[in-house]
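call fold(seq) -> C-alpha cells
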Amino acid sequence: MQPHTLLPLELVQNGGWAEVEDTIGQPTWISRMAELGVRVGSRLQVLRQGRPCLLRVGSSRLSLRDESGTHILVRPLPAAS
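ret:
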C-alpha cells in the first residue's frame, strides 16, 4: 500500500498504524471523535479490526461499535511509527 493512499479506517490491518486525514459525518459526531483524540493529524493503531473496532489513540484505547470506521479516512503509516 502506498503511503499517500487514503482509505477508510476499517481497512487498516490489525497492528497497523495510520494518520487521520479526515472525518466525515454530523458535526456532533466529528466533535465527539475529536474529544476522544480522533482528529485530523492524530496517529492511531488498529488493535482489532471489525465491529467493534479497537484502536489505540495516544495512551488510550477506543472501541468503535458501528460503521464509524468507514467515516474516518486515514493514511497508512510504516510499521515503526
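Residues 7-77 form a domain with the SH3 type barrels. fold (CATH 2.30.30.90).
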